[in-house]
Specification:
Elements: E1 7-9, H1 11-23, E2 30-37, E3 43-50, E4 58-62, E5 65-69, H2 74-77, E6 80-86, E7 91-96, E8 102-103, E9 110-111
Parallel strand pairs: 1-6, 2-5
Antiparallel strand pairs: 2-3, 4-5, 6-7, 8-9
Length: 112
C-alpha cells in the first residue's frame, strides 16, 4: 500500500512560498519543513529556506514550488496539508495534520 503524500499545499500556500522565494537574496532551492521540540504540547512546525537537499530528505514539488521534508519529521506530518492564512490579527503557514492528537491552548505546539 502506498503512503499518502508527505504534504500537500493549498493555492494560498503555493502563492506565499513563491512570494518568499522571490524576495530572498541568497540562492535557495525551496523551503524546508521540519518538526522541533517546543511548547507545552511537545512539537512545533519549522519552516526555513533550503539552500540544498540534505541526505534522506523527501522532496515535494507542487505547482512550481519545492519543499524539502526533514527525515525526522516525515512520520509526524505524513498526509498533512500546508496552508497560508492571513487575517486582521496574524498571518502565517497553517498545517492541517491528520496525525495530531491535540494542540496546546495557544496553538503553538501539538502532539501525535
Amino acid at each position: 500500500m502506498d503512503r499518502p503524500p508527505v504534504i500537500t499545499l493549498t493555492d494560498a500556500a503555493v502563492d506565499r512560498v513563491k512570494a518568499l522565494m522571490s524576495r530572498t537574496t541568497d540562492p535557495v532551492l525551496g523551503l524546508r519543513i521540519g518538526v522541533k521540540t517546543k511548547g507545552c504540547s511537545g512539537m512545533s512546525y519549522s519552516v526555513e529556506y533550503a539552500k540544498e537537499q540534505k541526505r534522506f530528505e523527501d522532496k515535494v514539488e507542487q505547482k512550481g514550488v519545492t519543499l524539502f521534508i526533514d527525515p525526522t519529521a516525515v512520520m509526524f506530518i505524513v498526509g498533512s496539508e500546508m496552508d497560508y492564512v492571513e487575517d486582521k490579527f496574524e498571518s502565517g503557514f497553517v498545517f492541517r495534520n491528520p496525525n495530531e492528537k491535540g494542540r496546546c491552548g495557544c496553538g503553538e505546539s501539538f502532539h501525535v
